[in-house]
Amino acid sequence: MKNKLVDYFRRIAPLSDEEAQAILDSMVVKSCSKGTHLLMAGQVSTEAYFVLQGCVRQYSLVDGEERSNGFFTEDEWVLSIHSMMNRTPADHFMVCAEDTTVVVGTEQREGDLYRRFPRFESISRRVMQKVLAEQQERFASYLTETPEQRYLKLSKTRPDILQRIPQYQLASYIGVKPESLSRIRKRIATRGKPATPRRRA
């Protein structure tokens, strides 16, 4: 399972055997039960997580109600970029939606790798750019897409999420109430059915 992180980096840039082994040696793997919070609102984030197995949900509290902002599954990074970079309290929560195994990254471990292998810094920068681009795409979808369009995109790009996440959390993610999500699903299902032939007079 640990090799998933090495494989991820190798998709970003080629790695020598020595570099790959250094990543493996520096890895701290943590297993978390469903419901475990990796970050609480108000905390300053000091860790980044790479999901080896499981699912992490990011959410905010709006008027006392949970609003899901993102779901992160295998081979994805989970981090509060603004909180980590600016040393400011996070305005959201990160919780394991399933029993989850993650690699825990810290600035100190990153720095140790950079000193041994300076080019890791440029690789990490490319990873960060990828994570930022994904976050910007999610944010843009809230500004430009309807809830139905967001649901359709999710069903095409991440169909596994529809099976792994409760409907009320999925509804809050696309920006509607659970009953509205049910109507969206029915509408989509109806459109997907072949038209019933009319009887001839």
TrEMBL record:
InterPro entries: cNMP-bd_dom, cNMP-bd_dom_sf, RmlC-like_jellyroll. Signal peptide: none annotated. Gene3D superfamilies: Jelly Rolls. Residues 11-57 form the Cyclic nucleotide-binding domain. Transmembrane segments: none annotated. This is Crp/Fnr family transcriptional regulator.
